Structure formats: structure tokens, C-alpha cells
TrEMBL record:
Compartment list: Endoplasmic reticulum membrane; Membrane
Protein name: TMD11 protein
UniProtKB keywords: Endoplasmic reticulum, Membrane, Signal, Transmembrane, Transmembrane helix
Species name: Pluvianellus socialis
Membrane topology recorded in Swiss-Prot or TrEMBL: Single-pass type I membrane protein
Amino acid sequence: LALYFHSGEREEKCIIEDIPMDTLVIGNYKVQRWDVHKQDFLESAPGLGMFVTVTTPSAEVLLSKLYGPQGTFSFTSSLSGEHIICLQSNSTRFVAFAGSKLRIHLDIRVGEHFLDETVVQAKDKVNEVNFRLEHLIEQIHHISKEQNYEREREEKFRKTSEETNSNILWWAIVQTLILISIGIWQIKSLRDFFISKKLV
């Protein structure tokens, strides 16, 4: 996931990532500050840091740390589900004066270990092949985790659908019984009425 978004200087922005259990997540970000004179975003925002907070589906804070204007954060998920990743600048200016606009570039990799090409080039060919094989094995493990997680979600959805269908069936049966009971009661009431009026 690679994107950028605009944010106020004191504004917190969050994204939601659906992550399987026991999965490494690596995020790279860069902050740019709006320059009024140049009418453009500056390449960097010196002196401005970012608070990164990661919350698990059970509302447990997995990561809460202050980084610089450009950095990398990482965490390993302990639960499957929607993790909330929030970024907020560490600006100390009051809200009334913190009118500067920020552009935040964010790149999130789920279950992927970045290859350091300089390390790869420094090793001989056998080690390079070994290194790439390990990387491929890690990716296979990640794909397997993703598939297991999707299976779990599909099973939960199927169970919910079956329960809903079962409830609908029982409600239809109850409605039918109520209608039949009302019909029998109306016929009996009419019959009693006609008998009392000596029409039958």
C-alpha cells in the first residue's frame, strides 16, 4: 500500500489495515510542509516529527513512538483483524496558530522483508541465491498465513449466513402458525356469531 494524504499540523490521520496474525508490517513515511512563498510542498519538514500509533483489533496499543520527519516503523501483529495505524505531527504550536498544511507519503508493506541490494551485491553468488531463497520462503509463509486468515473469515461469514437463514426459516414458520391460528379463531368467531343470531 503506497499513498499520500494531506493533514493539518496538529491533525491525526489514521488508516485501517486488515492483517493476519503473527505478520511483520513495515511502514516508510516522509513528511512535507507547505511553503506559502513557493506555493508548493518543501522536500522535507526539518524539526517536525511524527507520532506513530498502532492499535490492535482488541484496542491494545501495539506501537506508540515518536519518529523524525522521515522514517521507518515496524511491528508484528499479535491478532488477526483490522489494525489502526495513526500518524500525527509533534507540532507544539497552539491549534489556532498551527495552520500549516502537511503532505504525508506513506508506504506500508505487509509480511514483506525488504531486500538490501547493497548487502546482496557484496556477497558471492551462492550466498545471494541463499538470501533470495530465504526471502521467497518468507513470502510463501506470508501467503500461507493470508490464505488461512481468509479461510477463517470465510468460515465466520458462512456460519453467520447459516444462522441468519435458520432464523428466517423459524420466523416464517412462526408467522405461518400465527396466521393459521388467527384464521381458525376468525372462523370460530363468525360461526359463533351466526349461531347466536340464529342465521345457521
